[in-house]
C-alpha cells in the first residue's frame, strides 16, 4: 500500500504544528469561536451533542496493522475505548477534547494519517472498493488512481472552498461495491477498444435531500488524462454551482439543471483548454504510485479444500468470505454488526485484534467498507479457522454479511447535532428481531439515517428508514426499493411514518409480505419489490 | 415553561448547565433562567468560553428537570445506546 514520501509527511506535519498553534490561541481566547470553527472543521473536528467528534480520513478505506493499532491507541488514550467506522470508509471518535487534539493529530501523523478534508466544502476522502486487488471480477486495482486523486485534491487551492462538499468514488469492477452511481463523481476502470485501461466517468449522483443517480458523461477516458479531466469537472462545478442556496449547491443539482449532455459539453470545452497546460502527471508518476500497490505474492498452490465440519464455522465461511482471485485464498469480511450491538462500532481491543490478524494472516492489510464492516483482503483458506476462532472470542464472528442484521446506520440523534431522530436503537431492535430468519431472507440491505442528509444511505437501502422530527418527537419514514450497487435505484417512501416501535413492526410486515410473494428462495427482496411494485407492501403495512 | 441555559465547554466539549453561580455537568444542578436567559447569553457570549449557548425548554418533575425534546434529553444524559456512559440526569430508558 502507499507510503508517504517526504512531501506527504511534510504537509501533514506542518498542518499538525499549525493546528497546535491555532488550538492554543483559541484556548487562550486570542481568537473567537467564529474564527476558529472553520479551522477546526478543516481538521475534521466537529462539536456534536455530547463532545467534540473527530473524523479521521482512511484513504480508499485501506489500512495496515500499524495504522489500525494507532486507531485503537487513539480510542484508548483520547476517547472512551471505541471508534465508529462510517459509510465514507472513515472512522469517527465521539468523546474528543479540544485541548488534547494536537497531540492526537501528531500521533496520527506518525502513521501517515490525518483528518484533513473530512469536513467542509472541499473534496472529501476518496472512497473505493473494499475488495480492491483481491476480487476476481476486477479489471485492475482502483487504488493507485484513487491515491493520485488524493494527492491532487489534498489542499488543492482552487477546490478548497467549493459550493458544497464533494465526494469521489473509484472502482475497478463492474460489480459495484463502492456505490459509484451515488457519488458526485464515480469512476469505473474499463477496457478500451485495444484492451487498454481507461475510466468511465459518472457525475451528479448523491443521496441526501435530493437523491439522484449519476449520469455517464464519458464512456472512456484515457488514464493518462484523467487528472486534467477531473480538474475540468471541478472547474465547471466551481463556476456554476449554486452558492446562493445550500440545498441546491451539490453538483447533482447543476448536472440536473443543465442536463447531463450540456454539462458534459461544458466539461469537454473546459478540458480542451486545460489539457495542453500539462496538468496531468507524467506516466512515471502514476507508475511510481502504482508500484506501492503491487499485489501481494500469494501461494497459488495453497489448499482450496479446508475442513468445514464445524457447522458454525462453515456458515461463517459461506456468508462472510468471498472468492479471491488467487486460488486457495479468500476475502474475509469481519462484521461489526452483531445483533444488538452498535453498527460500525469497534472497541480498541477489537481493533488491536483485527490488526494482529491482518499482520499474521492477511498481508498486513485491512479495509473499511462503506457498509461499516472491516475486511481482510488476502487470506489463505487454510488460515480461516484460526481467524474465525480469534474473531469469535472477540464477538466479531457474526455471519451476517449483506443480510437483514447487517444494517447500515448513521450515529443519529444519539450523537449527531444534525440528526432529527435516533438511528442506532432502530438498527439494534431490527437486527435482534430479524437475525433468526435472515438466512431464509437472503440478501437484504437495510439502511437507516437519522436525518435527511442521509449518512445512513437510506435512499440506497432495499429497505430504507429515515428518522424525522415531528414536534420534538422521533418519527420514522419507511422507504423501499433502493440499491447502491451496479443495479442502483433510489428507494421511495411507502406512506405515513411511524414511532420507534411502529417502524420495527412495519419492517416486519414488509418482510412477511415479501416471503409470501417471492417467486422462490433465490429471489431477493429487491427483486420481488421490483417485480410486484409497492402496492402489496403498502397494503401489508397500512391495511 | 421553565427555560434552562446550556452550552458546551470550549476545552472539552462537555455539555454544561447554568446553576446560577456557575456551570455544572449535571442537569439536576440547573436553575430555571426564564426571562433572564437572553441577558445571560449576552453576558457569556463575549467571554468565548462556552460554545453553542442555548436556552431549552424543560418540565419540572419529582426526579428533576425533564427537557421537552428528545434531542435535549439525549444531550443531557448521553447516547441512549451507551447506558454505561449515562449521566445521572434522567433515566436513559425514559429518553
UniProtKB/TrEMBL annotation, chain A:
<keyword id="KW-0411">Iron-sulfur</keyword>
<feature type="domain" description="Nitrite/sulphite reductase 4Fe-4S">
    <location>
        <begin position="119"/>
        <end position="272"/>
    </location>
</feature>
<keyword id="KW-0560">Oxidoreductase</keyword>
<keyword id="KW-0408">Iron</keyword>
<dbReference type="Pfam" id="PF03460">
    <property type="entry name" value="NIR_SIR_ferr"/>
</dbReference>
<feature type="domain" description="Nitrite/Sulfite reductase ferredoxin-like">
    <location>
        <begin position="334"/>
        <end position="392"/>
    </location>
</feature>
<dbReference type="GO" id="GO:0009337">
    <property type="term" value="C:sulfite reductase complex (NADPH)"/>
</dbReference>
<dbReference type="InterPro" id="IPR036136">
    <property type="entry name" value="Nit/Sulf_reduc_fer-like_dom_sf"/>
</dbReference>
<feature type="domain" description="Nitrite/sulphite reductase 4Fe-4S">
    <location>
        <begin position="444"/>
        <end position="541"/>
    </location>
</feature>
<dbReference type="InterPro" id="IPR045854">
    <property type="entry name" value="NO2/SO3_Rdtase_4Fe4S_sf"/>
</dbReference>
<dbReference type="GO" id="GO:0000103">
    <property type="term" value="P:sulfate assimilation"/>
</dbReference>
<dbReference type="GO" id="GO:0046872">
    <property type="term" value="F:metal ion binding"/>
</dbReference>
<dbReference type="GO" id="GO:0020037">
    <property type="term" value="F:heme binding"/>
</dbReference>
<protein>
    <submittedName>
        <fullName>Sulfite reductase</fullName>
    </submittedName>
</protein>
<keyword id="KW-0004">4Fe-4S</keyword>
<feature type="domain" description="Nitrite/Sulfite reductase ferredoxin-like">
    <location>
        <begin position="52"/>
        <end position="110"/>
    </location>
</feature>
<dbReference type="GO" id="GO:0050311">
    <property type="term" value="F:sulfite reductase (ferredoxin) activity"/>
</dbReference>
<dbReference type="GO" id="GO:0051539">
    <property type="term" value="F:4 iron, 4 sulfur cluster binding"/>
</dbReference>
<dbReference type="GO" id="GO:0016002">
    <property type="term" value="F:sulfite reductase activity"/>
</dbReference>
<dbReference type="Pfam" id="PF01077">
    <property type="entry name" value="NIR_SIR"/>
</dbReference>
<dbReference type="InterPro" id="IPR006067">
    <property type="entry name" value="NO2/SO3_Rdtase_4Fe4S_dom"/>
</dbReference>
<keyword id="KW-0479">Metal-binding</keyword>
TrEMBL record, chain B:
<protein>
    <submittedName>
        <fullName>DUF2849 domain-containing protein</fullName>
    </submittedName>
</protein>
<dbReference type="InterPro" id="IPR021270">
    <property type="entry name" value="DUF2849"/>
</dbReference>
<dbReference type="Pfam" id="PF11011">
    <property type="entry name" value="DUF2849"/>
</dbReference>
Amino acid at each position: 500500500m502507499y507510503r508517504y514520501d517526504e512531501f506527504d509527511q511534510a504537509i501533514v506535519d506542518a498542518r499538525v504544528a499549525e493546528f497546535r498553534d491555532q488550538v492554543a490561541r483559541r484556548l487562550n481566547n486570542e481568537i473567537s469561536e467564529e474564527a476558529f470553527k472553520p479551522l477546526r472543521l478543516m481538521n475534521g473536528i466537529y462539536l456534536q451533542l455530547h463532545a467534540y467528534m473527530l473524523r479521521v480520513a482512511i484513504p480508499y478505506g485501506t489500512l495496515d496493522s500499524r495504522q489500525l493499532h494507532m486507531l485503537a491507541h487513539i480510542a484508548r488514550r483520547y476517547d472512551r475505548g471505541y471508534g465508529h467506522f462510517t459509510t465514507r470508509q472513515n472512522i469517527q471518535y465521539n468523546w474528543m477534547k479540544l485541548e488534547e487534539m494536537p497531540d492526537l493529530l501528531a500521533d496520527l501523523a506518525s502513521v501517515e494519517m490525518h483528518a484533513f478534508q473530512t469536513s467542509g466544502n472541499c473534496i472529501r476522502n476518496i472512497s473505493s472498493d473494499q475488495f480492491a486487488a483481491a476480487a476476481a471480477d476486477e479489471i485492475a486495482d482502483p487504488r493507485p488512481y484513487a491515491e493520485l486523486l488524493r494527492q491532487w485534491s489534498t489542499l488543492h487551492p482552487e477546490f478548497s472552498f467549493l459550493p458544497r462538499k464533494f465526494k469521489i468514488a473509484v472502482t475497478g469492477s463492474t460489480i459495484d461495491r463502492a456505490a459509484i452511481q451515488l457519488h458526485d463523481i464515480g469512476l469505473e476502470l474499463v477496457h478500451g477498444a485495444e484492451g487498454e485501461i481507461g475510466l468511465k466517468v459518472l457525475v451528479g449522483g448523491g443521496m441526501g435531500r435530493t437523491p439522484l443517480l449519476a449520469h455517464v458523461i464519458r464512456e472512456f477516458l484515457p488514464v493518462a488524462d484523467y487528472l486534467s479531466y477531473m480538474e475540468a469537472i471541478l472547474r465547471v462545478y466551481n463556476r456554476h454551482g449554486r452558492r446562493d442556496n445550500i440545498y441546491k449547491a451539490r453538483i447533482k443539482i447543476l448536472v440536473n439543471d443543465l442536463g447531463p449532455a450540456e454539462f458534459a459539453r461544458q466539461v469537454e470545452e473546459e478540458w480542451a483548454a486545460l489539457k495542453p497546460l500539462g496538468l496531468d502527471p507524467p506516466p512515471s508518476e502514476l507508475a511510481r504510485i502504482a508500484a506501492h500497490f503491487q499485489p501481494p505474492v500469494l501461494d497459488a498452490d495453497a489448499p482450496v479444500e479446508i475442513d468445514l465440519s464445524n457447522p458454525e464455522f462453515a456458515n461463517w465461511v459461506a456468508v462472510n468470505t468471498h472468492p479471491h482471485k488467487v486460488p486457495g485464498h479468500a476475502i474475509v469480511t469481519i462484521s461489526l454488526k452483531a445483533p444488538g450491538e452498535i453498527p460500525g462500532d469497534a472497541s480498541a481491543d477489537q481493533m488491536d485484534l483485527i490488526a494482529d490478524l491482518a499482520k499474521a494472516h492477511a498481508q498486513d492489510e485491512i479495509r473499511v467498507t462503506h457498509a461499516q464492516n472491516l475486511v481482510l483482503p488476502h487470506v489463505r483458506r487454510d488460515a480461516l479457522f484460526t481467524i474465525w476462532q480469534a474473531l469469535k472470542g472477540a464477538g466479531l464472528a457474526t455471519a451476517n454479511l449483506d443480510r437483514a442484521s447487517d444494517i447500515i446506520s448513521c450515529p443519529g440523534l444519539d450523537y449527531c447535532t444534525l440528526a432529527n431522530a435516533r438511528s442506532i436503537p432502530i438498527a439494534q431492535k431490527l437486527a435482534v428481531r430479524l437475525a433468526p430468519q435472515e438466512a431464509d431472507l437472503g440478501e437484504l440491505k437495510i439502511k437507516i439515517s437519522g436525518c435527511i442528509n442521509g449518512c445512513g444511505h437510506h435512499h440506497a437501502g432495499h429497505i430504507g428508514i429515515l428518522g424525522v422530527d415531528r414536534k420534538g418527537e422521533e418519527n420514522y419514514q419507511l422507504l423501499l426499493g433502493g440499491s447502491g450497487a451496479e443495479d442502483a435505484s433510489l428507494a421511495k417512501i411507502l406512506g405515513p411514518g411511524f414511532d420507534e416501535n411502529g417502524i420495527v413492526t412495519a419492517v416486519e410486515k414488509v418482510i412477511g409480505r415479501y416471503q409470501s410473494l417471492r417467486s422462490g428462495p433465490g429471489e431477493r427482496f429487491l427483486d420481488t419489490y421490483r417485480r410486484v411494485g409497492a402496492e402489496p407492501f403498502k397494503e401489508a403495512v397500512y391495511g | 415553561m421553565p427555560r434552562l441555559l446550556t452550552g458546551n465547554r470550549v476545552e472539552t466539549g462537555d455539555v454544561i448547565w447554568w446553576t446560577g453561580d456557575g456551570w455544572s455537568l449535571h442537569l439536576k444542578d440547573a436553575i430555571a433562567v426564564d426571562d433572564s436567559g437572553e441577558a445571560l447569553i449576552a453576558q457569556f457570549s463575549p467571554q468565548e468560553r462556552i460554545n453553542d449557548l442555548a436556552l431549552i425548554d424543560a418540565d419540572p418533575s419529582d426526579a428533576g428537570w425533564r427537557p421537552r425534546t428528545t434531542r435535549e434529553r439525549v444531550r443531557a444524559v448521553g447516547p441512549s445506546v451507551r447506558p454505561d456512559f449515562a449521566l445521572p440526569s434522567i433515566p436513559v430508558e425514559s429518553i
